[in-house]
């Protein structure tokens, strides 16, 4: 086995050197900055999740994609394998405990463990204000968007530890910083993820696992059609923040690969905006 990971200190913030080629138990010799690392991406069959899965695989990782619908998983796996990438997949509705267990079992069956978890899946069943949301809607949004990343991570954590470098990326939204009045509980759920990132980053630092957060702006996907296809909203937004174009899923993928890579080994607990502008000081 070609072991190219050099640890110069224990715990978080290790340094890594010469990570471009590394073989794992599959025996497939991947190349790239994430060579032979194992990544799990939720909500990975379309939009931002799909672009992230593709980028991680292009950078050398073995990637497990998942989403709620089998036909979407089959389509995504076929497309990525068709590009020669090392990808497998399974159905996982992140809000369902039995589906999360199936995802864990798939990871263990194929790779015996994992290095990176990208919690990208989210829902927004309501396009109205916070106070008009029913308890059912609140439960669904908080279950899928906020609780499921923590629950899935707790199930996968034993299989992420002691592998050298672990990274978790949560996916929040610009709505956490600039709430859209018609997306009430969704805004709140995405703000909660900023706090979850901070909390988990402290909890997992002693285990050598970093936790950071991707905060996308408005990115061209089905999910955001309600915003970017609303001419009045989009033109105002573009003008206010001096945007030159709509974001593309690929605009988010490079950051996630970087956050998983050795170059990010001293970056932990950050919420990083990919929006074409900055909503923060
Ligand atoms: N697009 C934007 O402008 C934007 C902006 C800020 C933040 N975000 C965030 O980025 C993430 C991805 O959004 P997107 O725009 O890429 O969405 P998208 O294009 O609609 O893709 C959503 C993906 O998630 C899967 N999915 C939906 N619900 C799921 C669930 N409960 N469990 C597992 N998988 C599920 C879908 O497949 P199935 O239908 O097969 O489940 C699909 O693969 C979300 O967290 C969203 O909040 C997006």
From TrEMBL:
Keywords attached to this entry: Oxidoreductase
Ketoreductase domain sequence ranges: 37-209
Any GO MF annotation of the entry: carbonyl reductase (NADPH) activity
Keyword Chloroplast: no
Protease keyword on record: no
SMART domains referenced in this protein's UniProt entry, alphabetically: PKS_KR
Recorded coiled-coil stretches: none
GO cellular component, one term: mitochondrion
InterPro entries in alphabetical order: KR_dom, NAD(P)-bd_dom_sf, Sc_DH/Rdtase_CS, SDR_fam
Any Gene Ontology biological process: lipid metabolic process
NCBIfam families, sorted: PRK07231.1
Family: Belongs to the short-chain dehydrogenases/reductases (SDR) family.
Listed PANTHER family: DEHYDROGENASE/REDUCTASE (SDR FAMILY) MEMBER 4 (PTHR43943), DEHYDROGENASE_REDUCTASE SDR FAMILY MEMBER 2, MITOCHONDRIAL (PTHR43943:SF3)
Name of the protein described by the UniProt record: Dehydrogenase/reductase 2
């Amino acid at each position: 086995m070609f072991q190219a990971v050099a640890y110069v200190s224990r715990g978080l913030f290790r340094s890594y050197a010469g990570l471009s080629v590394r073989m794992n138990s599959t025996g497939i010799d991947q190349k790239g900055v994430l060579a032979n690392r194992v990544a799990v991406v939720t909500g990975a069959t379309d939009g931002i999740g799909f672009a992230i899965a593709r980028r991680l695989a292009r950078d050398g990782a073995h990637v497990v994609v998942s989403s709620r619908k089998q036909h979407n998983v089959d389509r995504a796996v076929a497309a990525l394998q068709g590009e020669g990438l090392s990808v497998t997949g399974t159905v996982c509705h992140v809000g369902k405990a039995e589906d999360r267990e199936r995802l864990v079992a798939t990871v263990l069956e194929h790779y015996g463990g994992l290095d990176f978890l990208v919690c990208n899946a989210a829902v927004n069943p309501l396009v109205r204000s916070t106070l008009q949301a029913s308890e059912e809607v609140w439960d669904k949004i908080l279950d899928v968007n906020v609780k499921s990343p923590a629950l899935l991570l707790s199930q996968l954590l034993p299989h992420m530890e002691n592998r050298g470098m672990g990274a978790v990326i949560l996916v929040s939204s610009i709505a956490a910083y600039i709430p859209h009045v018609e997306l009430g509980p969704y805004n709140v759920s995405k703000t909660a993820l900023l706090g979850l990132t901070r909390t988990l980053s402290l909890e997992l630092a002693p285990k050598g696992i970093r936790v950071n957060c991707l905060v996308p702006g408005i990115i061209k996907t089905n999910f955001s059609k309600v915003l970017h296809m609303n001419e009045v909203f989009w033109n105002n937004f573009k003008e206010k923040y001096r945007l030159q174009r709509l974001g593309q899923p690929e605009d988010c993928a490079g950051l996630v690969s970087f956050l998983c890579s050795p170059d990010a080994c001293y970056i932990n607990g950050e919420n990083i905006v990919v929006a074409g502008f900055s909503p923060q000081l």
